[in-house]
Amino acid sequence: MATPNTLWLGLVLLGTLGVLQMPAQASVQPNFQEDKFLGRWFTSGLASNSSWFLEKKKMLSMCISLVAAAPDGGFNLTSTFLRKDQCVTRTLMLRPTGTPGCYSYTSPHGGGNHEVSVVETDYENYALLYTESARSPGQDFRMATLYSRTQAPGAEAKEKFTAFAEAQGFTEDNIVFPPRNDKCLEERE
Question: Which residues belong to the signal peptide in this entry (predicted)?
Fold first, then answer.
């Protein structure tokens, strides 16, 4: 009979050999520059393990988000999206965590604490973000997001996002590139 130590060693070896599909740990953009991240972004790609997301992903459309500096060193993230044929605007207060490029916020749905990290960005074209929250043991929320400065992200940005989402453990079924919806995507600064 295997002891707990030999079982653990076996799991470590399987993980090392790549047999177990464990999500890669999301990092933060090195030398993150908050001032360059400000401005308009379009949510061009999403991946999530949320049951709500999986049920509604075919109905999602691209939204526009404005990132503005907040007095506490964080961001105000104001997003406008289409819901039931109406444009809805919501603002999240992203509080700094002490690590540049990493922020926390309280979810307006259920009040859970979430942490969002800017994992990679070139500031001018795209940004890859990763959000996670542990609601309770066994119930985690994870989301990968592709932001783009335009409504038509290039193929390279989409490929980067797909690879990033898959590295976080998301499958093709968890990934969506929401279609444009001109009704709520006015060009605002």
Answer: 1-26
Positions marked active-site: 63
DSSP secondary-structure letter at 180? P
pLDDT tens string 17-42: 333 333 445 688 899 999 999 999 99
62 burial via Cβ count (<10 Å: 0-12, 13-18, 19+): buried
Q: How many domains does the chain have?
A: 1
Question: What b/e sequence results for 35-45 when a residue is b if at least 16 CB atoms lie within 10 Å of its CB, and e otherwise?
Answer: eebeeebbbbb
CATH at 94: 2.40.128.20
**What's the CA gap between 127 and 120, in Å, rounded?**
6
Range(s) of the domain holding residue 109: 36-184
Q: Is residue 152 part of a domain?
A: yes
Would you say residue 77 lies in a domain?
A: yes
Report pTM: 0.81
